[in-house]
Amino acid sequence: MLAQLIEFASNHYLLSTLFVVLLALLLANEARRGGRSLSCRELTAALNAGSAVVLDVRPHKEFATGHITGALNIPYDKLDSRLSELDKHKGKTLIVVDAMGQHAGSICSTLKKAGHEVTRLSGGLASWRNDNLPVVK
User: What is the 3-state secondary structure (H, E, C) of the chain?
Assistant: First the structure.
């Protein structure tokens, strides 16, 4: 299979180059649109400094199985109707957490348009749990 891929790329080098360039642009755009990503260590430091609030955008059922201490829960699909609940946190950075990072970019974009300072947890709650950090129920 790898030999076929190499043969295809060498026979269609313009097409292959165009694909790689477009993929890189897509990834760069998604990273820019979603804002800065934080590691678990950076998230912990921001929480300890009191300069951030965790916004967990997973559905309530998933949130109830375990979440970061002090996290607010506004499910991804209800954010637009509940955006005003976040106005009292405008002086702090909102750190968006989802299951594995799949929704955080679009949520960050929405929150930026609403005037919030936002970042996201890289890898979502899965990375938090992989680092054996505590969750509460």
Answer: CHHHHHHHHHHCHHHHHHHHHHHHHHHHHHHHHCCEEECHHHHHHHHHHCCEEEEECCCHHHHHCCECCCCEECCHHHHHHHHHHHHHHCCCEEEEECCCCCCHHHHHHHHHHCCCEEEEECCHHHHHHHCCCCCEC
CATH topology of domain 35-130: Oxidized Rhodanese; domain 1 (3.40.250)
pTM of the model as a whole: 0.72
Spell out the domain ranges in the chain: 2-31, 35-130
pLDDT tier for residue 121 given thresholds of 50, 70 and 90: confident
